[in-house]
Amino acid sequence: MLYNKNIERVRKMEARILGGKLRQLRGERKMNQEEVAAALHVSRQKYSRLEQGTSDPSLVELNRLALLFDTTVSDLLAEEQEEEPVLSLYRAKDDSPEINYINDMIDMFFKNKRVYSKG
User: Fold this and answer.
1) 85 — alpha (psi -120 to 50), left (phi > 0) or beta?
2) What one-character DSSP code corresponds to residue 95?
3) b/e 60-76 (16+ beta carbons within 10 angstroms → b)
């Protein structure tokens, strides 16, 4: 039971961090929530919940957000801007979007493994 509570606490914390980053990136690009929601193929209300940290994005939505904001899924989910992806030495600037997506999934796996093994 304690394990489930820790997972939920971490998930809520990460959702708030992601929401803050989304709000910042949207502001930097001078976009409104409706424009971002349209690019994600979701309602404005769903996108608003993502920014508030009360809803979790799907993997498809995370990938679309990374493409829209010209960043990586790892950067969207990282707690600090200076945090490097776990497998950054395997990344190349000219990797295809498919390879970057696979690397992002691997990074998320190792990042989550570190977070949950500490709890």
Assistant:
1) beta
2) -
3) ebbbbbbebbeebbbbb
DSSP-assigned letter for residue 58:
P
Structural domains in the chain plus CATH codes: 2-118 (1.10.260.40)
Collapsed DSSP state (helix, strand, coil) of residue 119: coil
Cβ-based neighbour number of residue 88 at 10 Å: 10
Written as one letter, the residue type at 80 is E
Contact predicate 95/104, CB 8 Å: no
Tell me the three state secondary structure of residue 4.
Answer: helix
Give the pair of three-digit tokens for residue 103.
């690397």
pTM: 0.61
Q: Which residues, other chains included, contact 65 with Cβ-Cβ below 8 Å and sequence gap of 6+? A: 22, 40, 57, 73, 76
pLDDT tens, 71-89? 888 888 876 655 454 445 5
